[in-house]
Amino acid sequence: MGEALDLFRVATGVLLHAILVHTGGSSVAMIPRETVMPPSSSALAPKVNLITLGVSDIARSTAFYQRLGWRRSEEASTQDVSFFALDNLVLAVWSRDRLAEDAGLAPTPPGFGGFALAQNLASEKDVDLAIDNAVAAGARLLKAPAQTFWGGYSGYFADPDGHPWEIAYNPYFPLDEQGLVALPA
Per the database record, which ranges form the VOC domain (predicted)? Predict the structure, then answer.
């Protein structure tokens, strides 16, 4: 934990991106922001610009996300990594083993890593259509869309490497003009 804390402290002025790796069941502790940096510091803004998914077959994963209609940046991508421009975020697919090595982690077998990627949509009908399109593109249905205990509507699919995606309609988190979640204050 000490090394991780030091890395957060060193992040001042460094472009930081989020790397999500399945950890094979190991736990991650949440550190209060005040522990990492003074409350007045703005060195690490509360945002994520890039998510990298570790995958076993880059070409297969690239083709899957393209079948979803996502645009691959041909200029930024190579045969070793694909970048997709999303609203206010970049999604990358890269070798699972190389991502683990780059992050200083031991490679682990695919499985639930304690996180899900999510997309909120404007209606239940939109959720049904998005899940159907994902399955048609090669996703595995994990949970059919249904009413939720929290008053919304959602379903889950997994991409070809098992990364879970929740597609939801949440009446408590409306979407703004750009289709981005507008959290209540």
Answer: 47-170
Domain locations in the chain?
Answer: 47-105, 115-174
Cα–Cα distance, 141 to 12 (Å, whole number): 41
Nearest to 174 by CA among 165, 166, 183: 183
Which pLDDT value is given to residue 1? 39
Cβ-proximal residues to 132 (8 Å cutoff; 6+ apart), any chain: none
Rounded to whole angstroms, what are the CA distances from 133 to 63, 65, 82, 93, 136? 14, 11, 21, 20, 5
Query: The pTM is what?
Result: 0.73
CA-wise closest residue to 68 among 167, 145, 176: 167
CATH architecture of 115-174: Roll (3.10)
CA neighbor of 83 nearest in space, from 73, 96, 75: 73
The Cα angle at residue 57 between residues 66 and 138, in degrees rounded to 5: 45
Class of domain 47-105: alpha beta
Answer yes or no: are the C-beta atoms of 167 and 116 closer than 8 Å: no
Could you report the per-residue pLDDT of 29-70, keeping only the tens digit for each?
333 444 444 555 657 888 899 999 999 999 999 999 999 999
